[in-house]
Amino acid sequence: MIEEYIIPIIVIGVIILTQALKMVKEYERVVIFRLGRLSGVKGPGLFLIIPIIDTVMKVDLRVVTIDVPKQAVITKDNVTVAVDAVVYYKVLKPDAAITEVENFKFATAMLSQTTLRDVIGQIELDELLSERETINKDIQELLDVSTDPWGIKVTGVTLRDVSIDDTMLRAIAKQAEAEREKRARIILSEGEFLAAQKMKDAAQLYQDVPASLKLRELQTIAEVAREKNLIVVTNSTDTGDIVAMTSAVSKK
Question: What start-end ranges are recorded for coiled-coil regions in this protein (predicted)?
């Protein structure tokens, strides 16, 4: 009689053992609930649970990538831009990720979208185009603070693309051209100012040292002679001698 029950008992034991024996990979953890209460976190490797009494939920600890879809956002200076991003996060506390939020993946994705809109709405277009690294860091910090109670760590945020309509692009191009023209005018004005300052200093030097003016006059005459010019206009009292000397040099 006993032998008749051995095989069914063995089969039942194997089934129970199969249900009780669990295995998870290195990058996975299992959150166990015993009669509805949180019992603990198991893994990696093999472990046992109590069938029927225990229920399990598996959590992946690897970095997850969220593709935040492109969305229209109005910047602080009332410019509409289309922005999309990529968010990277990982689960640090599997029990919190299961018990603190209904669906941590969906919640993190939605939070990423709203945080992106909030941050972009508080900055101007110029800052958005030139300070992407700073904006990425700000979004990451805000997301990390919000997801910390869920046991989630946001490891990175990257703004992938910022699209602007053609009208705004033309306006930006005109603004950039005007900025370059302004810088060119400033540089030209500074050059003229420095040249005038040097001329003022030279005039003061000629006034203080009359001999230097005479030397400069002779140097000018020599330069004119090399160019074969026959007439030299001067206010000197020795004009005749100067013209004669210049002509002689030129004839040679």
Answer: none
DSSP state of 234: -
Question: Identity (one letter) of the amino acid at 230?
Answer: L
- Among 203, 191, 128, smallest CA distance to 159 is for 128
Q: Tokens standing for 85?
A: 């991003």
**pTM of the entire structure?**
0.65
CB 85 within 8 A of CB 140: no
3-state helix/strand/coil string of 204-218:
HHHHHCHHHHHHHHH
Confidence of residue 197 (pLDDT cuts 50, 70, 90): confident
Output the average pLDDT for the chain: 82
Q: C-alpha distances in angstroms, 53 versus 12, 20, 38, 47, 88? A: 17, 10, 12, 15, 36
- For residues 59 and 57, give the distance between their C-alpha atoms in angstroms, rounded to a whole number: 7
Cα dihedral 148, 152, 153, 155 in deg (nearest 10): -140
State the Cα torsion 119-121-124-125 to the nearest 10°: 100
Scanning the chain, the segments in alpha helix (DSSP H) are: 2-20, 94-99, 104-120, 125-130, 132-147, 166-208, 210-226, 239-251
Q: How far is Cα 9 from Cα 17, in angstroms, rounded to an integer?
A: 12
Q: Which amino acid is at 85?
A: A
Other Cβ atoms within 10 Å of 65 Cβ, number? 10
Residue 3 has pLDDT above 80, yes or no: no
Task: Read off the pLDDT of residues 74-104 as tens digits, 9 standing for 90 and up.
Answer: 899 888 899 999 999 999 999 999 999 999 9
CB 58 within 8 A of CB 83: no
